[in-house]
Amino acid sequence: MDPVSRASAWRLGWPTPIDYNDNEGFCGGFNHQYEVNGGKCGICGDSWEEDPRPHEAPNGLYATGTITKQYTQGQVFTLAANITTNHRGHFEVRICPDPKVEATEECLHQYV
Q1: Which end of the chain is more exposed for a tag (fewer CB within 10 A), N or C?
Q2: 61, 64, 32: which is closest to 49 by C-alpha?
Q3: What are phi and psi of 106, to 5 degrees?
Q4: How many domains does the chain have?
Q5: pTM of the prediction?
Q6: Which domain holds residue 53?
Q7: What is the pLDDT of residues 42-87, one digit of tens each?
């Protein structure tokens, strides 16, 4: 929740589309991801077959290009997440620098 994601920005007062399922960036669920989509998942956690994927630029409903927080290169900051269900996983944060351009795996691997 800090920095807030494009899916949850509305919860903190940003004028972005409301995503009541903002805690469900899980590729449609394990069975859907593997049985329907052969293990594929949208880069922002949307189901692979959705077109457009709602959280991905350039045409996703929630990909408005809204920048909710800015940092300077090399700045150290603390992240805050709202965990609604604990499945004993972990967080790894990757980000591409331009929110209006479609993120790719190659870009995300550059900015861990």
Answers
A1: C
A2: 32
A3: -60, -45
A4: 1
A5: 0.85
A6: 1-111
A7: 999 999 999 999 999 999 999 999 999 998 888 999 999 988 888 8
